[in-house]
Write a structure and sequence with these properties.
The complex is a heterodimer of chains A (about 425) and B (about 525).
Chain A: H1 2-18, E1 52-58, H2 64-67, E2 68-69, H3 74-79, E3 91-92, E4 98-99, H4 107-111, E5 115-122, H5 130-139, H6 151-158, E6 169-172, E7 187-189, H7 202-217, H8 223-241, H9 258-271, E8 278-283, H10 298-317, E9 324-329, E10 350-356, E11 364-365, E12 386-387, H11 388-399
Parallel strand pairs in A: 1-8, 1-9, 5-11, 5-12, 6-7, 6-8
Antiparallel strand pairs in A: 2-4, 3-4, 5-10, 9-10
Chain B: H1 3-18, H2 27-37, H3 46-53, H4 55-62, H5 71-77, H6 87-108, H7 115-147, H8 151-163, H9 173-185, H10 193-201, H11 204-209, H12 223-231, H13 233-242, H14 250-259, H15 269-278, E1 282-284, E2 293-295, E3 305-307, E4 310-312, H16 319-329, H17 332-346, H18 353-366, H19 370-379, H20 396-406, E5 410-411, H21 416-423, H22 447-461, E6 468-469, H23 482-493, H24 500-510, H25 516-529
Antiparallel strand pairs in B: 1-2, 3-4, 5-6
Helix pairs in contact in B: 2-3, 3-4, 5-7, 6-7, 6-9, 7-8, 7-20, 7-21, 10-16, 12-13, 14-15, 17-18, 17-19, 18-19, 20-22, 22-25, 23-25, 24-25
Classes of the chains: A alpha/beta (about 425), B mainly alpha (about 525).
């Protein structure tokens, strides 16, 4: 059975290819291993065709201006004498913007047009509180505090197409984040290897699993019984995928650290065809008030991990990336002007990245408001020209095929005319 | 109070009329039901004790926690230094560290050395102190829930903490939350709703959490600013930039939507604005001055307001806020909204109207005496109905605490047991949303959470769960006799909840386990992780 699945996975990729979509990921040498299967199986729709969204929250407010550097904007160097990334170090993207050098590992994806950046994106709410701004970005209702569920969960609630498989919505970390809180089932997984009943001896584990399974199959009805059944199905399917033996493909090497560890597990889940549609991971260390550094230093270290992990993930997934989009987000940006301690304080708009086959990459999207003091928000911060809901909404609509965004972003009308255009149409 | 057992008999006798297939509740079953709802489940021996005493007598005693001696918990509380801490002290410590950090930032880059590194120890001190506060606060709640004789009081402290939720992780609430629990919520948990509402409105934790502390009437300036402007224009300018300006509606909105009237309680956006204007000036002292409640006259909007048709004439400064809170506390919509939440907690996720009506009537009669409202719920036929029995799925807190109680477990003073509850999805004082944690089973039952509960049950039964010690030998002696083992576990630890099916599964699974200690751990682990124990 597992073998057949693999075949379907391959054929799924082929099906899209033969339907004339861009062979984005075939350009890379790593995919030389890819061997087309006979056309007879090309029409079988498999899990590999289903879109996956991976959301990566950079908690602490990343300095978008040093991540996607506006080296063509004269105020950038003027306002940041100590922490600006020198033009010579910037990995130029389009003559005006460039990648921080620590993100150089992502340049190939820019070149093959699977990486896009959106600049000057953020919340319409003016708060500079991490707590409030993260809350708004995760509930998807800026300014409204009482929203109890997250927008990713609301998407799952209202998306009728996908079945509620146990692994449909997974957050990697010890607790379920706000963005996935709500009535649609979602899992928080700290470590895939530890998913299931934790007994070291396989014999004892199987016995315990069987016993609990029988208990829950018993007289119980309703939600407890259904969830019990789902639990054991998930355990069984994950066991078949054998996370202990996982080896990344195409020589991908994930950097040490939380981002790499979570992305590696997400890649595993995607490849195991367990019905993953929405994955979430977060990272910390972006709140660079003091000594944030320029080409090297504190922020560079964090970006290095991010870039390396994203590159490894993309390499590892290979052709599967054609149905995967990774989206980074952060609660707000940082001050245009560096502070007295070679850092930056809480600002307004920031930059976000979208990576994957469906991404219309090779472009910095969004409207650049410039760093001209007159154009700044409250006279000091990069102004928001793209409401984050328009970016998230575009991805839900065009990538995940969401039918109705009114329920996902209540009180806001997401309109195609305001989409930043990160997804191929 | 003598009539209470008689009343229980009436409801018990009334039950067969509507549910002919069910026998009336036995004293044992009613004791177990009451212990599942008013308490965090039975400890070994509790069911028999309550049944012998008479369940209504036990309930009556629980409604007067001050009359129940609780020496064990009082002794254990001495291991939690936050209880002795002056509420302002932590605020000052955290504020001082912040000041130092800001000062460090100002002169840092010119000092030659790497300022970031030099500042690190200060930061980590603060982090450590915040961490320890959170650890103690969480574990204190778990310890009390497990050990306290005043079980209903602990359940109600949890209920109100959730109803008037604040988030420990938001800025200064790291300093304000301990006193919020101890001095704002706890003393009023079974008191009058109006007093509780007023206490939360004036609490620094709530004022900070919902931003009211910085809500000022537009254009208002503190007298200190005018003084500064006469001396130093530039510094006055800086002060002005840092100062909050304008109305903040957050508290006003949540006060009506969550704390009192309910979302359909009948108010408009205009009412929200009027309420926000009434609460302008309700703020917090600087930490150096104690960090308590403070009313800033200069920030208050002294104009006339109208809230839901009620006129608040101009010039009543802080009094009009107090008047508004009293009106809200006695509003029929509030009585209904909060009574319904209480019934959802104690009776079922979708509480029957009859029960809610009884609670509202008691509220009205007693002018919001929470103990009387609860008494009405516990005396209602709905509370004792067949549909209510075992109808609710335990929240993570209820599951963990009831499991530890079932095995007579002893939590230590480390935060480890509280962290397990966090992993189950309900970290205490860490819910960012003002709506608090949900009460219904849909929000807690899913495959990942169930697996985690099973793992925790197995670890607890084997004595491997960190943060709690168990001594099973006196409760369930290890034995080769599988039938006797299962029966003892069911009767002594679980109150006899195992179904025939579970009984058969346990017998089958334990049959081939040779070691009696391992067999005991297996049976208890399966029973606590199994479906029956997830319900209450």
């Amino acid at each position: 059975m597992a073998v057949t699945r693999r075949v379907f996975v391959k054929s799924g990729g082929l099906a899209l290819f033969s339907l004339g979509l861009d062979p984005l990921f075939l350009e890379r040498a790593a995919y030389a291993l890819y061997r087309p299967l006979p056309p007879s199986s090309a029409l079988v729709r498999s899990d590999a065709d289903h879109p996956v969204l991976v959301c990566l929250f950079m908690r602490g407010a990343v300095d978008g201006l040093n991540m996607i550097v506006p080296h063509g904007d004269p105020f950038y160097y003027k306002e940041r004498p100590r922490i600006a990334v020198p033009a010579a170090d910037v990995v130029d993207l389009d003559g005006h913007f460039g990648l921080h050098p620590a993100l150089a590992a992502l340049k190939p994806f820019w070149d093959n047009k699977s990486l896009a950046a959106v600049h000057a994106v953020g919340s319409p709410d003016s708060t500079r509180s991490h707590f409030d701004a993260q809350d708004y970005m995760e509930t998807g209702t800026p300014g409204a505090k009482a929203t109890s569920d997250g927008w990713l969960n609301r998407y799952c609630q209202h998306d009728a197409e996908h079945a509620n498989t146990p692994f449909r919505a997974v957050a990697f970390g010890p607790e379920l984040p706000r963005i996935l809180a709500g009535s649609a089932p979602s899992l928080a997984i700290d470590d895939l290897q530890a998913f299931g009943l934790r007994v070291p001896q396989p014999g004892a584990r199987d016995k315990l699993t069987r016993a609990f399974e029988s208990l829950y199959q018993g007289a119980e009805t309703g939600l407890l019984a259904t969830s019990g059944r789902e639990s054991f199905e998930a355990v069984q399917r994950l066991q078949q995928a054998n996370p202990l033996r996982y080896q990344p493909d195409h020589g991908a090497e994930y950097p040490r650290g939380r981002i790499g560890h979570a992305l590696l597990q997400i890649a595993q889940l995607i490849k195991a065809d367990l019905g993953l549609r929405v994955a979430f991971l977060d990272s910390t260390g972006w709140d660079t008030h003091v000594n944030q550094g320029s080409s090297e230093g504190q922020l560079a270290g964090r970006l290095q991990e991010l870039g390396g992990a994203l590159a490894a993930f993309t390499t590892d997934l290979g052709e599967r990336m054609r149905s995967v989009v990774v989206l980074t987000m952060s609660e707000f940006g940082r001050t245009v002007r560096e502070n007295g301690n070679s850092g930056t304080d809480h600002g307004h708009a920031t930059a976000m990245l979208a990576l994957g086959g469906p991404v219309a990459g090779g472009r910095v999207r969004g409207v650049w408001p410039t760093l001209d003091p007159a154009a700044r928000f409250e006279g000091r911060d990069l102004a928001v020209t793209t409401d984050f809901r328009d970016l998230f909404g575009e991805i839900l609509m065009r990538h995940l095929g969401a039918a109705d965004l009114d329920a996902v972003f209540p009180g806001y009308t997401v309109g195609p005319e305001r989409y930043p255009g990160v997804i191929h149409t | 109070m003598r009539f209470l057992p008689a009343l229980l008999m009436c409801t018990a006798l009334a039950a067969p009329a509507t549910h002919a297939q069910r026998p009336p509740l036995t004293p044992h079953d009613s004791a177990l039901h009451a212990l599942n709802r008013l308490a965090y489940g039975p400890r070994p021996g509790d069911v028999d004790r309550v049944a012998t005493l008479g369940v209504m007598s036990w309930i009556d005693a629980q409604l007067h926690p001050d009359r129940i001696p609780d020496p064990d918990v009082e002794r254990r509380e001495s291991a939690f230094p936050i209880l002795d801490e002056d509420p302002a002290s932590l605020a000052r410590a955290i504020a001082n560290v912040r000041q130092q950090r800001i000062a460090g930032r100002r002169d840092g880059s010119d000092g030659g050395g790497p300022p970031g590194r030099r500042l690190l120890p200060v930061d980590s001190q603060a982090t450590m102190r915040v961490r320890q506060t959170m650890d103690q606060l969480q574990q204190l709640a778990v310890m009390r829930a497990v050990r306290s004789e005043r079980q209903l009081q602990e359940v109600m402290v949890d209920f109100w903490t959730n109803h008037f939720n604040v988030f420990f992780g938001k800025g200064a609430d790291r300093a304000f939350t301990p006193s919020y629990i101890e001095r704002t919520i706890r003393p009023h948990a079974l008191g009058h709703f109006q007093d509780l509402l007023l206490a939360t409105a004036k609490s620094p934790a709530m004022l900070f959490y919902l931003d009211n502390w910085q809500s000022v009437t537009p254009g208002a300036e503190p007298p200190a600013l005018a003084r500064m402007a006469r001396i130093d224009d530039a510094r006055a300018e800086q002060m002005l930039a840092r100062m909050p300006h304008g109305l903040n509606e957050n508290y006003a909105r949540e006060l009506m939507e969550l704390h009192t009237l309910g979302v359909d309680g009948g108010y408009t956006q205009q009412d929200v604005i009027a309420v926000a204007r009434i609460f302008t000036g309700w703020s917090i002292e600087r930490p150096q001055q104690g960090g308590g409640f403070r009313f800033n006259d200069w920030a208050h909007d002294d104009g006339e307001k109208t809230v839901r048709g009620v006129r608040f004439p101009a010039g009543h400064s802080m009094d009009e806020g107090v008047r508004l809170l009293k009106l809200l506390a006695q509003d029929p919509a509030t009585m209904h909204h909060v009574s319904r939440q209480l019934c959802a907690r104690f009776v079922s996720d979708e509480p029957p109207d009859g029960c809610v009506d009884r609670a509202v009537a008691a509220w009205s009669r007693s002018e919001g005496d929470i103990a009387e409202v609860l008494r009405a719920i516990f005396q209602s036929p709905e509370f004792w109905s067949a549909q209510a029995l075992r109808a609710k799925v335990k929240t993570p807190l209820e599951f963990m605490v009831s499991a530890v109680r079932a095995v007579g477990g002893d939590p230590d003073t480390t935060p480890r047991l509280a962290q397990v509850i966090g992993r189950l999805g309900e970290p205490l004082y860490a819910q960012p949303s003002p709506a608090g944690y949900p009460e219904s089973q849909q929000d807690w039952v899913n495959s990942g959470a169930l697996l985690l509960r099973m793992n925790i049950a197995v670890a607890l039964a084997a004595g491997r769960l960190p943060g709690v010690s168990i001594a099973l030998d006196s409760l369930v002696p290890a034995t080769d006799d599988a039938n006797a083992l299962i029966a003892t576990v069911d009767v002594r630890l679980l109150g006899g909840i195992l179904t025939t099916h579970s009984d058969e599964v346990l017998r089958r699974e334990v049959g081939d386990v040779r070691d009696p200690v391992a067999a005991r751990a297996l049976v208890i682990g399966l029973a606590l992780g199994g479906p029956e124990f997830q319900r209450q």
